[in-house]
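**Archive record**
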Amino acid sequence: MGIVKAHGGGVTVESESWRGSTFRIFLLVTTEEVTFRPDLPTIPVVLLTGKAEEISRGGGAVLLIEDEELVRDMTKELLTRLGYEVLEANDGFEALEIFQQHQDEILIILSDLTMPRMNGWDTLVALRKLSPDIPVILSSGYDEAQVMAGEHPELPNAFLGKPYQLNGIRDTISRVLANKA
C-alpha cells in the first residue's frame, strides 16, 4: 500500500463471503524510457559540485538487505547490471553477520526499512556501531518525508523510494559514494 500511495496510485477491494476478494491496483503510466547498455565502460553522473565526471561501472560489493524475496531478486539484478557484486541478507540480523564476514569488501549498503525481527533503523544503528563511516541507503515504499520524520540516532546517507528503477539506484549510489570520497 505504501508503494502504491507513494506513486500517486490507489487500491480497490471487492469482497464476497465464501467467494474471495479482488484487489485492483491503479498506478500512473509513465513514458520514461529505461535503457541498459552493458557495453558502456562508465556511467556519467553529475556530482553535487555541478560538473560532469565519469564514475566507473560497479566495482565492490553492495550489501542488499531486503526481506521480500521478489524485491530482493529484482534489486540484485539491477545492481548486477550496474556491475556490483551483491551480498544478500533477509533481515538486519543476517545483514550484521554478513557485514562482519565481508566488511572489507562492502562498498555500500542498501537496506529496506520495514522488515521483521530488526527494522532498517535498528539495522542502521547496529551497522554504524561496527563501522561508523559505512554508507547506508534506506529504502521504502513509503514517502521519504514520512520515513525521515522524527528523531533517529543515526541517519542514512540517502533515501531511495520503491519501486526501484535502474537510473535511480545508479544515481543514488553514485551520489553517496562521491560524497564519501
